[in-house]
Specification:
This protein is an alpha/beta fold and about 220 residues long. It folds into two domains: about 140 residues, Response regulator (Rossmann fold, 3-Layer(aba) Sandwich); about 70 residues, Winged helix-like DNA-binding domain superfamily/Winged helix DNA-binding domain (Arc Repressor Mutant, subunit A). Helix content is about 50%, strand content about 15%. The protein is built from ten helices and six strands. It has a six-stranded parallel sheet with strand order 2-1-3-4-5-6, with helices on both faces. It starts with a strand and ends in an 8-residue tail after the last helix. This is DNA-binding NarL/FixJ family response regulator.
Length: about 220
Amino acid sequence: MIRVLIADDQALLRGSFRVLVDRSGDCETVGEARNGAEAVRLAAETRPDVVLMDVRMPEMDGIEATRRICRELRLPDVRVLILTTFDLDEYVYGALRAGASGFLLKDTPPAELLTGIRIVADGEALLAPSVTRRLISEFAARPRSERPIPRLLDAVTGREREVLTLIGRGLSNTEIAQHLSLSLATVKTHVGRILAKLDVRDRAQLVIVAYETGLVTVGG
């Protein structure tokens, strides 16, 4: 079972998400938080696989709660899926930089939300199309002088850079394997090594690295 913690300041939404999760057959709710501070505390207590995190909450917002959860060394396997009615640039980039593994809007159909939980629990990145467009726009608008120097990739091999580039373009492991004529196991090994070398949690952060270092460019 995929263990899910729900963080939202609206009781009605928390209840609706709980019913959806608990009726899925392969997911279960392990706690509900009314604000970001509660989410951080309950994440430490329940150690969920996925936190469904609202952005706008009292006491501590979802982005700060995400940052604290993802920086907690005792919670290396907890993934955060941001759910919000807002898809503004500041939330997209802020949430991903804080360590979120995915970002979906609250009007996402229930079946797609459950699929999103499963994808994030499996270590994949999940970005809604509108979110991806805004993320790309964010990098397109930044002067090159503000972007990190690509020395971050010095330890990454040529093949690993190919894999990282395809991750940045949104390809799954299966698609990368087909594109590079590699086995799925080999691709997974490359991804694991890239994560370790770049010291990031999951694929969502790899997407950011791919853009920030110039491996992937807008329209490229």
